[in-house]
Amino acid sequence: MNRTRGAGADDYTEGQVLWDAARYTGGAGDAASGVSTGEPAERLILMKIGVLFFGVLKDVIGRSGETVDLPEGARVREVLFYYARAAPRFEAMVPSLAISVNQEYSGADRALRDGDEVGLLPPVSGGSAESDGENRSQTRDEVRGEGRGEGRGEVRGEVKLVRERIDTEAVVGQLKRPADGAAVIFEGVVRDNTRGRRTLYLDYEAYEAMALKQMESLAVEARARFEVRGVSIVHRLGRLDIGETSVLIVVAAAHRGAAFEACRWIIDTLKKTVPIWKKEYFADGAVWADGEAFPEEIRSPGGTAGKQPASK
Fold first, then answer.
1. pLDDT, tens digit (0-9, with 9 covering 90-100), for 246-273
2. CA-to-CA distance for 106 and 100, rounded, in angstroms?
3. pLDDT, tens only, 44-88
């Protein structure tokens, strides 16, 4: 239940918000024990904010997510300040993080509302996924064309996220049409070594709901930007053994040049902007793969948190 405070939330400084959060944030439903102003917690208005951690951040924080209480009117930066104080390693990582609010990339100045979901995203290692929590697989099959003279029911491609082996032949066969002069196929495959270390297997995880949205956006933009007819993107999650396909991209077009360009752009962009992380398992241990940096327009808003000392 929300609790109220006499003065408005704008009376808080960033430092006060962090100090307060350190006292009354510890998980869903924790009661406030007092604030820096000396006013009783019962008079404070609190919002419940879901916070999710992925990749190496799960190891740094020690959990994959939680619900925290923040004062009404708090912004995303307050979440960053809180975890920077709680986990010193987190503070060093802040400049490289991307932030999402309700599955959309966001800046640190965004005001939060009760019930919002904040994702703290380390650099990604390529990929994407979506799960409904039951069949552990999501698909957006047969994305159909509209307008531009395309026939009604024309299949433009599919965005598919699976935990089973990817059937390349089936995906290609579903996409190709008689009018296509080219079908370019890219498969990302699990190799048996990384920097001289023998790889046993990989494990992919993703911010699944957000990743699917990003993949769908890539398919739509690629069709428009390169004027190709169809795009299919399939990515796998979970454990993958050596030689298995982790990501499949198929682009169908009238001419090979546009198809090649679109396919290269999709995989390069996917590996930088779609929230998925890869853990590599070796004979002597396991590590999260070093991710590619988010583009500056995504990453820079998160870096603003580093300007506020988190330990004071």
1. 999 999 999 999 999 999 999 999 999 9
2. 5
3. 789 999 999 999 999 999 999 999 999 999 999 999 999 999 888
Query: Residue 98: phi, psi to the nearest 5?
Result: -110, 160
| Cβ atoms of residues 5 and 39 within 8 Å | yes
Encode burial over 165-196: b for 16+ CB neighbours within 10 A, e otherwise: ebeeeebeebbbeeebebbbbbebebeeeeee
Domains plus CATH for the chain?
9-122+296-307 (3.10.20.30), 138-288 (3.90.1170.40)
Residue of 128, 2, 127 lying closest to 73 (CA atoms): 2
Q: Which bin fits 28, alpha (ψ -120 to 50), beta or left (φ > 0)? A: beta
| CA 230 – CA 157 distance, rounded (Å) | 5
CA 129 to chain centre: 9
**Whose structure tokens read 């002069």?**
181
Q: Residue 174 to residues 131, 146, 167, 285, 297: CA-CA distances in angstroms?
A: 22, 18, 11, 40, 35
Q: Across the chain, what does the average pLDDT equal?
A: 79
**pLDDT (tens digit, 9 = 90+) per residue, 178-218?**
999 999 999 999 999 988 899 999 999 999 999 999 999 99
The reported pLDDT for the residue numbered 38 is: 44
| d(C-alpha 252, C-alpha 235), whole Å | 18
